[in-house]
């Protein structure tokens, strides 16, 4: 196992796939000359040259469309958004053209493209730069949505995403790029898309959380353990397709569920998980499913308000104790 930062694991995945397949290329704002806004693509221009690591204008609609055209022609583009808030400028391309191409052409055209970059809040960036987009993009048939929580998953899932024949939204976290973790040094390391990870086994309550929220869940589980409660933590890793079967099996064991989600609460990932669990495992629930999400408001700028806005360890512990009927 090698110890890598999240940005290094993502870079390793892209580099290995570009070495393996000359049809893979990277395109986006500042990915080349500047080595990436977050240094994810550092050194890749020197290795692969400007024909395969391509700086673009600040024109997300344009270069996303260019990438889709390249994918339809047989190439495998990786499109980097400096932030997924900027992907809204390219919304028509990402949700209307890429995911519908195979279906509407009767299979004559594929669209093997990866849209990747940082998602969600990253501190004091204001409401227009703090959106969590996973629930939004999961709403569109034909798009797969991946949101890894650690460097190992990021590498294995991104390599699988680049090889996938469908368009994929790969959501990272700006605040996690510097996070270090062990990454498999297995040759050609791949992880299956659509398979959740049981990060911590427990008997009393299931906590489901992805991306940054996964780390909130793990800290909450540690705090609950101090009080004598045994939490099971599940990282979905892939939002769509969702591995609901793993979540259901856990709920059938613990009989209680808390879902942490950075998305706005209305029509969120947590809403979908809650619905599917009550639909499939209602008789196994000993308490209502509780969600830990931001409030249904734009993200604030002030740091003290941002601390209150984001899902927290304390909120997760309280929600877990509520479903355990250990508090009111």
Molecular structure report:
- The chain has 328 residues and is of the alpha/beta class.
- It folds into 2 domains: 2-183, Thiamin diphosphate (ThDP)-binding fold, Pyr/PP domains (Rossmann fold), CATH 3.40.50.970; 197-323, Rossmann fold, CATH 3.40.50.
- Helix content is 36%, strand content 17%.
- The chain is built from 12 helices and 14 strands.
- The chain has helices at residues 6-20, 44-48, 60-72, 91-97, 101-104, 134-138, 151-163, 212-226, 244-254, 269-281, 303-309, 313-323, and strands at 2-5, 24-28, 53-55, 76-80, 114-118, 144-146, 168-172, 180-183, 197-200, 205-208, 231-235, 238-240, 257-260, 290-292.
- The protein has a 7-stranded mixed beta sheet with strand order 3-2-4-5-7-6-12, sandwiched between helices. A 5-stranded mixed beta sheet has the order 9-11-10-13-14, with helices on both faces.
- α1 (6-20) packs parallel to α7, α3 packs parallel to α4 and α8 crosses α12.
- It is globular, with a radius of gyration of 20 Å.
- The termini are far apart.
